[in-house]
Fold:
Amino acid sequence: MKILEERIRQEGLVLPGNVLKVNQFLNHQIDPDLMLDIGKEFVKLFGEQKITKILTVESSGIAPAIMTGLLLHVPVLFARKQKSSTMPNELYSAKVYSYTKKIENTITVESKFLPASDHVLIIDDFLANGEAVNGLLEICQQANAQVVGVGIAIEKSFQAGAKRITDQGIHLESLAKIASFADNQVHFVGENYNG
Structure:
């Protein structure tokens, strides 16, 4: 997705530890027009599937998930990183290690919102080592819900996450695939660079 790649190139900041900061349009401040374009792209990629629910994890996955859900006219469910005092005990949960924050969270979803009849499209903002997506896959497994695919806005293709997902036979689509952060620059898969 060229428009997303251009925004990453113009506004993204490469930080130590293979971290990409895109808080001007995705992680802190959100560009709704870009999120709508991302939603449209996910609909193009997955719209032929029978999808009854979009699943993501709070908080940065919510914006692209909401736009995709809006266009598909299906509910968007997000896994919480902290259990709310109003949540019942009937929960699906999984442990997820955050690559950027260096902490482990237990993500949870109320079981009543994820019945076994659901056909789930997982959407998230980043894919690095695949921890968040694997946690969401585990939750879907607990619910006996069918995962129809995983849509990612930005994939760090040089890390293990994409392989972890595709090795499970899951349809994965990433809109911007980063090959390297060589010389503190973003290099996308398929472009020529000396890295």
Notes: The two ends are 22 Å apart (CA to CA). The mean pLDDT is 92. The helical segments are 2-11, 32-46, 62-72, 131-143, 161-166.
